[in-house]
Amino acid sequence: MNLIRKIRKFLKWESSPKPDITLNAELYSQLLPFRTPLILIQLCMLFGTIGYMQIEGHSLINAIFQTGYTITTVGFGSLGEADFSPMGKLFTVTLIIFGYTVFIFAMGVIIDVINKGELKRILKERKMLYRIARLKKHFVICYHNEYTIQVTKQLRTNQIPFVVIDPREDIEELAKQYKYPYFIKAQPHTEEAMLKAHLSSAKGLITLSSSIADNIALIASVRLFEKEHHIPSPYYVICAAEDANDIDKLKKLGADTVVSPSKLTAQRITVMAARPDMENLLEQFLYKSDTPLDMEEIFVPKTSWMVLKKLKETHLRDIANVSVIGITKKDGKLIPMPKGDVLVMSECKLLVIGTQKGILFTKSLVKKHEKPEELKYV
């Protein structure tokens, strides 16, 4: 399938996703200095071709050929230059000097542009933007720090795509060191950075700055981006807060989840001290990628066949091998360990535990409008 896709792409039957910002204007501005040498080369070829046709009576093809290897100083002999007229020889000498001057000028322009390094930077960034444009349901992670390093390790383990945005100059070296496959050098709160990170196709944003001002700016920018670009579903925004007093502020401003590293550390230490066996179980269950069990919330749409059905009537344990250990109602109220007589309401969330295969199957069942055929056998 990959070979067929590459062939289709090569033949332009299948277009690649285009980033919101292509850097074409910046690229053209860097290529602008090459315009003068190219024009001079074309004028030199035109001047030489016309000259040889008029002075030596060459055909058009022979005149182009003679001019080409004369201005490039390749050598003589193919068309019998020794038999040229004095005027032809003088014209050839003039053409060699003019061509060599243009060649030296062109080399100087090329070396100057390359030494500046801006063209190389733009080409590398442009390539990165086209790679990012292929991402869907990814997370945009703002600012590089110790939290970013640990978070990206877990995301890579769980095969969740992400883009790291940071304004520091050495972000490319940091990306190589800490294996960030996608990164952008920019101020995260700017619209340009969000467009480069292809936020329109992202699942959410994670801001891990130690400064609450940076986090506030990012939350405001993301929510404004949603409105201006008419994003159908809101982004899931996760913030870090060093101060516990800042948690409520960030949630009121629009953050979905605010994590306090100091609070989490205290909770983990308390669990380890009070119930060490439970901590080992959580470590195996939540953080190991090869665990056979998984836990996830599944949204029940209005059109689902499960709406207003009793939980025991769904037979999820029998047909999908999962267990519902909690139901979050539309108003946010959680029903822990629901009994079989509890009704499944529209727009609620089922907290299910089971194998990854079972959870995926449950998602497909919940999305169906009519009662699935699998229930005929239970």
What summary fits the major beta sheet? Answer: 6 strands, parallel
Number of helices: 16
The helix-and-strand class reads alpha/beta
CA-based shape: elongated
The strands making up the biggest β-sheet line up spatially as: 3-2-1-4-5-6
State mean pLDDT (0 to 100 scale). Answer: 84
Strand content is: 5-15%
Radius of gyration: 33 Å
**How many beta-strand runs?**
12
Separation of termini?
Answer: 38 Å
- Please mark out the parts with pLDDT under 50 across 5 or more consecutive residues, or reply none: none
Element-level helix/strand string: HHHHHHEHEHEHEHEHEHHEEHHEEEEH
Oligomer: single chain
The proportion of residues forming helix, as a percent range, comes to 40-55%
Please characterize this protein's 3D structure:
The chain is of the alpha/beta class and 378 residues long. 51% of the residues lie in helices and 13% in strands. The strands form 3 sheets. The protein has a 6-stranded parallel β-sheet with strand order 3-2-1-4-5-6, with helices on both faces. A 4-stranded antiparallel β-sheet has the order 7-12-9-10. It has a two-stranded antiparallel sheet with strand order 8-11. Helix 2 packs antiparallel against helix 6 (118-132). It is elongated. The chain starts with a helix and ends in an 11-residue tail after the last helix. 23% of the residues are buried. The mean pLDDT is 84.
Q: What's the gist of this structure?
A:
The chain has 16 helices and twelve strands.
